[in-house]
Structures are given as structure tokens and as C-alpha cells.
Design goal:
The complex is a heterodimer of chains A (100) and B (150).
Chain A (H helix, E strand, L loop, with lengths): L1 E4 L6 H18 L3 E5 L8 H16 L3 E5 L3 H10 L6 E3 L2 H6 L1
Parallel strand pairs in A: 1-2, 2-3, 3-4
Chain B lengths: L6 E8 L4 H13 L6 H22 L6 E9 L2 E8 L7 H4 L16 H8 L2 E7 L3 E9 L3 H6 L1
Antiparallel strand pairs in B: 1-2, 2-3, 3-5, 4-5
Helix pairs in contact in B: 1-2, 2-4
The chains are: A alpha/beta (100), B alpha+beta (150).
The complex binds adenosine-5'-triphosphate and magnesium ion.
Chain lengths: 100, 150
């Protein structure tokens, strides 16, 4: 499992750096699960959708899945609109997942 | 039909991605005069970010250009115009469809116009190929104080 904590506002300007770092780590560790922690993300636009779909594609090359945790309501709305929650799960927190 | 414009602002800036946050924060600060809810502010910020990013990425793909924003406050509503003098949109109807993008290779998801449409009350897109694009968005701000008077 590979956990990324995102600490910046997710827009077209900021995703580039995150994309590079994430792809490097995913290719290095080939994890079965990649988790993005959205706890510190207060803003996201459509660039965030592209970022997550893109990382899903990379993780999938190594049969890995992508999950999102601690996603705020206003950001959840944007993910819902895009339809990507069919392939990428939002989990409330890691503990509830372990017990459930 | 004349409108009662309570306030107006204009900004323009170079089409650099570093200005995306500047643009949405400026409009949000201006909108706060109407005493919006946190959710209304979030919707406005996201929609401005979408429109401005579109001008930066699609209107001026290989050069810097000017992006302009004009916002006006009406009685209980904000109107925001984002315009560029870039490449323009060939087929506006198609561009507005969910998931339609001409830049899939750049990890664009084609959700920008869909998000603006969902988060604002009205969205108008005008564009002429070679001349540029203007997006006009309106959002009603439900005034909390007024509701309490009745
Ligand atoms: N200001 C503009 N100038 C030129 N073309 C534009 C402009 N805005 C949008 N477009 C065109 O409309 C399409 C759809 O825009 P939309 O914002 O919905 O999706 P996107 O920008 O491609 O992806 P996303 O916003 O999800 O990252 C774009 O791919 C582009 O071809
Ligand atoms: Mg867009």
C-alpha cells in the first residue's frame, strides 16, 4: 500500500508536481493499493478528476487500485459528477475499512 | 429591462497557471459582499477556476495571452464574465457535453463546463473561432438576513 497525503489546493497549476511524484513512487513500489488522503485539501476543480483518473491508470498497470480518504463534502460532489466513483472508492477513514 | 447594479469589478492578467488561485480568490472576496454561504462561495470559486483554466489551457495553448474577468453584484445575484481573445470553440454544444475534451492527452477530464453548469444557476458560452471566448455565469445568493425578516 502506498499513501499520498495531498496538502495543496488541487488545480491545473498544482497537479503537475503531484502527478510526477505519484507516478515515480507508483512505478517504484508497484503497490496493490494507492491511497490519496484528502484531509488537507480544501479546494479542487476538474484538474483533480484528471489527476486521480490518471494515477488509477498508472496503478492499474501493476494491478493496483486507487482509494480516496477524508474527502470533504464539496469535493465529493465533484467526484460524483464525473462518474469516476464507479472505479475509485471513497473510504471514510482507514480504520473503518479495516473493520468492515 | 435595466438592472440595478450594486457593484462592479474587473481584473485582467496573463494566462499563467499561477494566476488560477489569484483569480478565484479575488472573485470570492468580491462576492462575499452579498453575504453568501460557505457552500455558495465554494461553488463560485470552483466555477471561476474552471473558466479561467479553460482560457489558460485551451485559448492560449502555446503562448501567453490576456484573461479578463468582470463581475457585477445585483440585488441578490452575482454575474461573472470570463473572457479571452484566444483560439475559440468550434462547436459550443459539443464542448459543453460532459466528458467532452480536446485535451485528453493532458489528463483533462472534460468536466469543466458540466461543473460550471451544476454549480451556477446560469451559464452562457459565446465563442468565435480565431477571436476568442466569453463565458458568463450567474448565481443567486440566498440572503440569510432577508429570509429571517418574514
Ligand atoms: N476558453 C476556451 N477557448 C477555447 N476552447 C475552449 C475554451 N473553453 C473550453 N474550450 C473547449 O471546450 C472543451 C470542454 O471544456 P471543459 O472545461 O468542459 O473540459 P476540459 O477543459 O477539456 O477538461 P477539464 O475542464 O475537465 O479539465 C475543451 O476541451 C476545449 O476544447
Ligand atoms: Mg476545462
Amino acid at each position: 500500500m502506498l499513501l499520498f497525503e495531498i496538502t495543496e489546493e488541487l488545480d491545473h497549476h498544482s497537479v503537475e508536481k503531484i502527478r510526477k511524484r505519484a507516478d515515480y513512487e507508483i512505478q517504484r513500489f508497484m503497490p496493490k493499493k494507492v491511497i490519496f488522503d484528502f484531509k488537507k485539501v480544501s479546494f479542487m476543480d476538474s484538474a483533480g478528476i484528471g489527476l486521480i483518473i490518471g494515477r488509477y491508470k498508472v496503478a492499474n498497470l501493476y494491478e493496483g487500485d486507487v482509494e480516496l480518504i477524508n474527502v470533504k463534502e464539496n469535493i465529493k460532489k465533484i467526484f460524483e459528477m464525473s462518474g469516476i466513483l464507479k472505479i475509485i472508492k471513497i473510504v471514510d477513514d482507514l480504520n473503518s475499512e479495516a473493520t468492515g | 429591462m435595466s438592472r440595478n447594479i450594486k457593484n462592479e469589478m474587473k481584473i485582467e492578467f496573463l494566462s499563467k497557471s499561477a494566476n488560477e488561485a489569484f483569480a478565484r480568490i479575488s472573485v470570492a472576496a468580491f462576492a462575499s459582499q452579498l453575504d453568501p454561504t460557505i457552500e455558495e462561495i465554494a461553488d463560485i470559486k470552483t466555477s471561476v477556476s474552471e473558466a479561467v483554466t479553460n482560457s489558460i489551457i485551451h485559448a492560449y495553448p502555446n503562448k501567453d495571452g490576456i484573461v479578463k474577468i468582470r463581475a457585477i453584484l445585483l440585488e441578490d445575484e452575482i454575474e461573472i464574465e470570463v473572457s479571452d481573445t484566444g483560439e475559440g470553440i468550434e462547436n459550443i454544444e459539443e464542448a459543453r457535453e460532459p466528458l467532452f475534451t480536446t485535451k485528453g492527452n493532458l489528463e483533462r477530464s472534460g468536466m469543466g463546463f458540466t461543473i460550471m453548469e451544476n454549480f451556477m444557476d446560469k451559464l452562457k458560452v459565446e465563442s468565435i473561432v480565431g477571436l476568442g471566448t466569453k463565458v458568463t455565469m450567474n448565481k443567486k445568493i440566498k440572503n440569510k438576513n432577508l429570509q429571517n425578516t418574514y
